[in-house]
Design brief:
By secondary structure, the chain is α+β, with helices and mostly antiparallel strands. The chain has 4 domains: 9-38 and 332-502 and 578-609 and 925-1113, Multidrug efflux transporter AcrB transmembrane domain (Multidrug efflux transporter AcrB transmembrane fold, Up-down Bundle), CATH 1.20.1640; 49-139, Alpha-Beta Plaits; 188-271 and 776-868, 2-Layer Sandwich (Multidrug efflux transporter AcrB TolC docking domain, DN and DC subdomains), CATH 3.30.2090; 616-724, Alpha-Beta Plaits, CATH 3.30.70. Strands 1, 2, 3, 4, 22, 23, 30, 31 and 32 form a 9-stranded antiparallel sheet that branches. It has a 6-stranded antiparallel sheet with strand order 14-13-19-20-18-21, with helices on one face. It has a 4-stranded antiparallel sheet with strand order 6-15-5-16, with helices on one face. The longest helix has 59 residues, at 1071-1129.
Length: 1130
């Protein structure tokens, strides 16, 4: 019977229009490169977590009052907003801060509008004397500094501030930059320091001076007047021209004479009290924190900033101004992307080499081209989806390296097989081959993609971060399908020849001519000062000579000797397996191995982590002193910590890039406090050089050393931590104790910390609480009866005291284009002396006579000292105290948390107090639940696709069993290598593995069905199908594994350095292997074992299935025959 001609029309059209396809290839290449260059580059993707902050200021209010008067009423209305995930608040002296985190599918603008509506609804319940309405702002967590620019030199701080302002203005003019924060600078101000005793002598009040300055320092428009046909503006100009004018300002009269400001105050141009400090490598500097806009290109922004700094140093700044850039994120990003690009090249070369061994050079070229073309198509699509080029996207390309060639392998191999049989010309053979395998290839691709579709809808913060991997893989694999059916057949038609014999030696004269031409080109390039192209030609020459002098012999021997012998050995193995009861024995053996694997894993459990953990590029030492500590005291403690850390590092340590200290500003480990000044906090940051320059030094070693040298500083709570990899999650060990009773809550948290310390939990560093309970206060205890009798209010006393201590900004003093605040307050020695403050005169109007009078505050009040609560934290409307701990190197957070979890039931806690584990553990549970559901949904999708393809239930079950049994390889791999299992990366690898392993099973089962349909006996059909499909099965599995091996072991070659300077900079390890290693090894372990399952177990299970069907059929026939015989007898 003549075989029906199958055809896939898009492929046939492409073959008939080869010129158009080659133009399309050129367009893909050009626009792919353009798109790659223009896509924003960053190390990690910027994720949007809808987070809104409501901040309310109420001066003179204690934390308890802030909670009751402001925080609670606001929370009450905010909690009813739909889409809210978590509400956390902190009430401190004078300030209420509420952080509302929404579900990640909520639009930030909508979230902000909803919160504003809730705040507006609450205004009637808030105190009437709030100085301003609650401020509602949205927080972009991606707005973190991309670099720190440090200015130093033999200049005063105010001189350096001028240069810092110039840098700030220039950088903030860039479209990529949001803002530049200046830390450690002195800000100018006009200081008017009043003498309270002289003011009392002249009967002047603080308000008198303030009003005098405000009303004199102004320019007022008086309208317009028409003079001689011209309309002229009338302006009353009265702004202060110099400091002397301010000094001679008349503020009142006494005894018939005028009182000038200089009579009662010291007036001078000075500086604000320094509220923050910054140091670089122990030297005082002014630091500029540069913050990039979300979605902008990090590398472009960094390059433009460096150009600005170079221009300023050459043309603006005097000699001696030292500019140092530290914490440059673009450097790490550039290194990461270059390493991943190099890994892609290594993987591509390894995959192509494997293809050459199995398919020959020409066919390997056809198939290998599917990798860059698929990536080019993905590059073009990515900007339309708002994707950036980050390490997750780059990893996706590495992950897809061995998979994108699968479709091309099947198409090219089928074309080659049909064409070499004869009977068809190359055009007809290519059309027929593509049509014949379209359905199985489509089914295989869909089963590979099936697990990635659920992953693309990964919810939460982790999902917002990780979804870049599945979506990029989906785009790339669909692109590979297009390349396999549109472009690869055109290559085959153009270059595949029946008489081709790739193993024949190239004539020696041809080798000499080609080699000579390459050498001449290389010399010309070097003479033209283009060493890159010259060296690239030489590398090409080495490859050309290697192939033509000996590699072709190796390929020939492999294809004519090793492959046939392997096929024979495999056939013998299959024939032995399919004899007698061995198929059943093999199946039961694998089931037994699965059970044994579970037992071994339970006995020798691998360590489990939430996210992979590598060597830190930065280590942070956070310093927290009691609330109220003066910033200068905090700075002195920070200097001591800094000194000890530098002592550990040593001088001129080659792995250390910089040591940066921040006091009060950017000193908190809470991302929401990054822009606020906290005088009792400081941070020391140690930045290390890139991994490739560390020469084998493990930076994790410094983590424990730092903790040991700073743990004995009295009065300071010090936390040493390293930068986190991956998405923002909670703290690894985080315990929340909640209760409505604050006293009970404080007592329980203290008792629980002592209880945990007594257990000496292995791996736990030190349990600490975030509760600040010792804020020192001076209480002005007002005698209300006496004060009210005099007509003095509490608000009046509080306002006068605040003005005396903090002062007020009376006006602005303009000097050229700059303007400075005129700060009005009492002299330093008076405002810092409590005895003088309590004798501060309060001016009031006598209720009986109406005459203005003044009396000292001590007449109606007395002072007392006490400690109060520094802050009150609430979570979801309940008071909460959080306890956390670092994890000692060598242990995992899960081990510590498990021990804490076991200890909680044994702790006696009061009624109404709740203790629970939160932080990273909540994210871990959410992720584990999702990945479990994703695996289940992936298996359902795969089963549906297979049932649709085979119209059978038993065959899909055979194929999907590979997924279950491939877990054996994964678990044994992690158990025997001792590598930790990552919940996220290993879990994602397991889900992805489900789609990869079934692909080869489909090839084997489908071809077995074809042979049975052709009349082969089942056993022989299984053997011949296995023999025919072992090559593509081994090829696709090997290509996928080899594509991931460089990333799994961290093998890296600098190809640009190799070609430009003949310096490959080969190294192993790095941040990328730490991050993606668990996922890569999951695929490698699972696919390696699954390949054995495909080649041995699936044939055995198919034989069991088919034998079972025949046995059942025979039993039915015997039963039917017996029934008929029985009927004949009666």
């Amino acid at each position: 019977m003549e075989k029906k001609f199958k055809e896939f029309k898009p492929t046939s059209w492409a073959i008939d229009n080869k010129t158009s396809i080659y133009v399309l290839i050129l367009i893909l290449a050009v626009f792919g490169m353009i798109s790659y260059q223009s896509i924003p580059k960053e190390q990690f993707p910027e994720i949007v977590i809808p987070t809104i902050i409501v901040s309310t200021i109420y001066p003179g209010t204690s934390p308890q009052d802030m909670e009751n008067l402001v925080t609670r009423p606001l929370e009450k209305n905010i909690k009813s907003i739909s889409g809210v995930k978590k509400i956390s608040s902190n009430s401190i002296q004078d300030v209420s801060s509420i952080v509302i985190e929404f579900q990640t599918d909520i639009v930030v603008e909508d979230a902000k509008r909803k919160v504003k509506d809730a705040v507006d609804k609450t205004k009637s319940d808030l105190p009437n004397d709030l100085p301003a309405d609650p401020n509602v702002i949205d927080i972009d967590l991606s707005e973190i500094p991309i670099m720190y620019i440090n200015l130093s030199g033999n200049f005063t701080l105010d001189q350096l501030k001028v240069y810092a302002d110039e840098v700030q203005d220039r950088i903030e003019s860039l479209s990529e930059i949001t803002r530049v924060d200046i830390v450690g600078a002195l800000d100018k101000e006009v200081q008017v320091n009043l003498d309270m005793y002289k003011m009392n002598a002249y009967n002047l009040t603080f308000n008198d001076v303030q009003m005098a300055i405000q009303y004199e320092n102004m320019t007022v428009s008086g309208g317009t007047v028409n003079l001689m046909g011209m309309t002229r503006n009338i302006r009353v100009v009265g702004e202060f021209k110099d400091i002397e004018t301010i000094k001679n300002l008349v503020i009142g009269s006494s005894g018939g004479g005028l009182v000038y400001l200089k009579d009662v105050a010291e007036v001078k141009m000075g500086f604000k009290e320094q509220e923050s400090f910054a140091r670089l490598d122990g030297l005082n500097v002014i630091t500029l924190n540069v913050i990039k806009k979300s979605g902008q290109n990090l590398l472009d922004a960094s390059d433009k900033i460096k150009e600005i700094m170079e221009d300023l140093q050459q043309n603006k700044f005097p000699k001696g101004v030292d500019v140092t850039v530290s914490g440059d994120q673009s450097k790490y990003t550039r290194t990461t992307l270059i390493d991943l690009n190099n890994t892609i090249i290594i993987g591509f070369l390894l995959v192509t080499m494997v293809l050459m061994f199995f398919m020959g050079v020409t066919n390997a070229f056809f198939v290998g081209m599917s990798v860059p073309l698929s990536m080019a198509l993905a590059y073009i699509v990515m900007p339309w989806m708002g994707f950036t080029m980050n390490m997750l996207v780059m990893f996706s390309f590495i992950f897809a390296l061995g998979i994108v060639v699968d479709d091309a392998i099947v198409v090219i191999e089928n074309t080659h097989r049909i064409y070499m049989k004869g009977g068809m010309d190359i055009v007809t053979a290519a059309k027929f081959a593509a049509g014949e395998v379209f359905v199985p290839i489509l089914a295989g691709t869909l089963t590979t993609l099936a697990p990635f579709f659920p992953l693309a809808f990964w919810p939460g913060v982790v999902g917002s971060f990780m979804k870049f991997i599945p979506i990029t893989i989906i785009i790339t694999l669909f692109a590979s399908l297009v390349v396999a059916y549109i472009i690869n057949p055109v290559f085959a038609v153009s270059f595949m020849h029946r008489d081709e014999d790739e193993e024949l030696a190239t004539p020696r004269k041809t080798i000499i001519r080609v080699s000579g031409g390459i050498v001449i080109f290389a010399l010309l390039m070097h003479l033209a000062h283009s060493p890159f192209w010259g060296n690239l030609a030489l590398v090409g020459l080495v490859v050309y000579l290697s192939h033509n002098l000996f590699m072709y012999k190796v390929l020939h021997r492999f294809q004519t000797t090793i492959i046939p012998k392997t096929l024979d050995k495999y056939e013998q193995a299959l024939r032995w397996v399919l004899q007698k009861k061995r198929p059943q024995g093999l199946l039961w053996g694998i089931i037994g191995l699965f059970i044994v694997t579970m037992v071994i894993t339970g006995i020798k459990s691998p360590k489990v982590v939430f996210f992979p953990d590598g060597e830190p590029s930065s280590i942070f030492t956070y310093i927290k002193l009691p609330v109220g500590t003066d910033v200068t005291v905090t700075d002195s403690v920070c200097k001591e910590v800094e000194k000890r850390i530098i002592g550990v590092l040593g001088n001129d340590n080659p792995v250390v890039e910089s040591v940066i200290s921040n006091v009060a500003m950017n000193a908190s480990d809470n991302v929401f406090d990054s822009g606020t000044k906290t005088s009792h906090k400081a941070k020391v940051t140690v930045n290390f050089v890139e991994f490739g320059k560390r020469k084998g030094v493990n930076t994790n070693e410094y983590l424990e050393k730092f903790r040991q040298v700073v743990n004995d500083i009295p009065g300071a709570e010090i936390n040493v931590d390293k930068e986190a990899m991956g998405p923002p999650t909670g703290k690894p060990v985080n315990i929340e104790i909640s209760s409505d009773d604050l006293e009970q809550l404080m007592a329980t948290s203290d008792a629980f910390i002592h209880y945990l310390d007594s257990l000496k939990i292995p791996g736990a560093d030190k349990f600490k609480t975030d509760f600040e309970s010792t804020k020192p206060e001076v209480i002005i205890d007002l005698d209300r009866v006496r004060a009210n009798h005099e007509g003095i209010s509490t608000g009046q006393v509080g306002g006068t005291m605040r003005s005396a201590v903090y002062g007020v900004e009376a006006s602005k003093y303009r000097e050229g284009e700059e303007q400075y605040p005129i700060q009005l307050r009492f002299k330093k020695e008076q405002r810092e002396d409590l005895d003088q403050l309590i004798n501060l005169h309060i001016t009031y109007r006598d209720m009986n006579t109406g005459i203005l009078r003044s009396i000292p505050l001590s007449a109606v009040a007395k002072t007392k000292f006490q400690n109060s609560v520094g802050s009150i934290a609430r979570l979801d409307l309940t008071r909460v105290i959080t306890i956390n701990s670092n994890v000692v190197t060598g242990y995992t957070a899960n081990e510590v948390v498990a021990a804490v979890q076991r200890s909680i039931p044994n702790f006696e806690k009061p009624e109404g107090v709740d203790i629970k584990i939160t932080g990273e553990q909540e994210d871990q549970k959410e992720t584990s639940d999702f990945l479990g559901n994703a695996m289940l949904l992936a298996l359902c999708l795969i089963m549906f696709i297979l049932i649709t393809q085979f119209n059978s239930l038993s065959k899909p079950v055979i194929i999907v069993s590979e997924v279950l049994f491939s877990i054996i390889g994964v678990l044994l791999g992690f158990v025997f290598t001792g590598m930790p299992i990552s919940i996220i990366m290993t879990g994602m690898g397991m889900v992805a593995l489900a789609g990869i392993v079934v692909r080869n099973g489909i090839l084997l089962v489908e071809f077995t069905d074809v042979l049975i349909d052709k009349g082969y006996k089942p056993r022989e059909a299984i053997i011949q199908a296995g023999k025919a499909r072992i090559t593509p099965v081994m090829l696709t599995a090997t290509a996928t594994i080899l594509g991931l091996v460089p990333l799994a072991i961290g093998f890296n070659i600098d190809f640009v350095g190799l070609i430009s300077h003949l310096e490959p900079h080969i190294h192993f390890g790095g941040d990328n292997v730490a991050f993606f290693g668990p996922l890569s090894w999951t695929i490698i372990f699972g696919l390696s074992f699954a390949t054995f399952l495909t080649l041995i177990l699936i044939p055995a299970m198919y034989f069991i299935m088919y034998s079972g069907k025949i046995t059942m059929k025979r039993k039915k026939q015997v039963l039917k025959y017996s029934e008929n015989k029985w009927k004949d007898l009666f």
